Amino acid sequence: MSQEKVDRYKKEKANRKQIMRKQRIMSVVRKCVLAVVAVALVGWLAFSAYDIHESNRERVVAEVNYDAITDYLNSLSENAE
User: Fold this and answer.
1) CA separation for the pair 8, 16 (Å, rounded)
2) What gap in Å lies between CA 80 and CA 78, rounded to an integer?
3) Coil vs helix vs strand at 74
4) Can you tell me the distance from the alpha carbon of 60 to that of 52, in angstroms, rounded to the nearest whole number?
5) 36 CB-near residues (< 8 Å, 6+ apart)
6) How far is CA 9 from CA 3, 6, 16, 32, 59, in A?
7) How far is it, in rounded angstroms, from Cα 61 to Cα 59?
8) Residue 80: how many CA atoms within 13 Å on its side-chain side?
9) 12 and 19 in contact (C-beta within 8 Å)?
10) What is the pTM of this model?
11) Spatial CB neighbours of 19, under 8 Å, sequence gap ≥ 6
12) For the chain: N or C, fewer Cβ within 10 A?
């Protein structure tokens, strides 16, 4: 082995704990980011499915009869004349 390789090996061996720690931290960060993306994707899909389900349901329509109010307003305008 050349002296460069020996020096590089000693340097790596001295910093091995820090290198391993940094790799573990990056692994955890990567997993967390992927988990957040997966949760966001599942949430978006669930919301879209719920929205499609709700838009396909029939809406209850209420009809209001305004004849009594119209008659009352007409009677007021006739009395005012």
Assistant:
1) 12
2) 5
3) helix
4) 17
5) none
6) 10, 5, 10, 32, 73
7) 6
8) 6
9) yes
10) 0.56
11) 12
12) C
Q: pLDDT digit string (tens) for 10-29? A: 888 888 889 999 999 999 99
Name which residue leads in pLDDT, 41 or 7: 41
Taking CB atoms within 8 Å and a gap of at least 24, the contacts of 64-73 are none
CA–CA separation, 11 and 4 (whole Å): 10
Residue pLDDT, tens place only, 52-66: 998 888 888 888 999
Domain boundaries, the chain: 3-80
- Residue type for 26, please? M
